[in-house]
Amino acid sequence: MIKVLFVCLGNICRSPMAEAIFNRQLKERGLSAQIASDSAGTSRYHIGADPDPRTIDCSIGNNTPIDHKARQVRIEDYHEFDYVLAMDQNNYRDIAAVFKKEHPHFYLMREFDEERDSLDVPDPYFGGMDGFQEVYDMLWRASDKLIDSIAREKNL
């Protein structure tokens, strides 16, 4: 089983949305038996919490089921996950500090978004629903290309 981890700051907006989108796309492609995902945050702010209600509303509004409880990234994730995707450059640095060594498949999520104007997925937490939809669209595009990349690399 190939395992993918999505990481943002609090694990209530971007990374659980990325996980939900990724899982939906895996299911639609018939790859759920070969690839699994999870998400985590670099902070301890929301451990055990559901995703932000706006994250849930946006995901459900886009026909993407979401079910997650926030957790913090941990050193064990280095060994457990084959791919680690940070939502922004601050998250990337924080994850690298936790892992203390280079992970072989550690990326910024938007490296897989061909329409990117930045490598960061903006945090929609302090904005309105339009920001959540913008993030959803970015994550959808990036997730699609991420799955393509994994499938090519692993011959799926």
Automatic annotation (TrEMBL):
<dbReference type="InterPro" id="IPR050438">
    <property type="entry name" value="LMW_PTPase"/>
</dbReference>
<keyword id="KW-0904">Protein phosphatase</keyword>
<dbReference type="GO" id="GO:0004725">
    <property type="term" value="F:protein tyrosine phosphatase activity"/>
</dbReference>
<dbReference type="InterPro" id="IPR017867">
    <property type="entry name" value="Tyr_phospatase_low_mol_wt"/>
</dbReference>
<dbReference type="Pfam" id="PF01451">
    <property type="entry name" value="LMWPc"/>
</dbReference>
<comment type="similarity">
    <text>Belongs to the low molecular weight phosphotyrosine protein phosphatase family.</text>
</comment>
<dbReference type="InterPro" id="IPR023485">
    <property type="entry name" value="Ptyr_pPase"/>
</dbReference>
<protein>
    <recommendedName>
        <fullName>protein-tyrosine-phosphatase</fullName>
        <ecNumber>3.1.3.48</ecNumber>
    </recommendedName>
</protein>
<feature type="domain" description="Phosphotyrosine protein phosphatase I">
    <location>
        <begin position="2"/>
        <end position="149"/>
    </location>
</feature>
<keyword id="KW-0378">Hydrolase</keyword>
<dbReference type="InterPro" id="IPR036196">
    <property type="entry name" value="Ptyr_pPase_sf"/>
</dbReference>
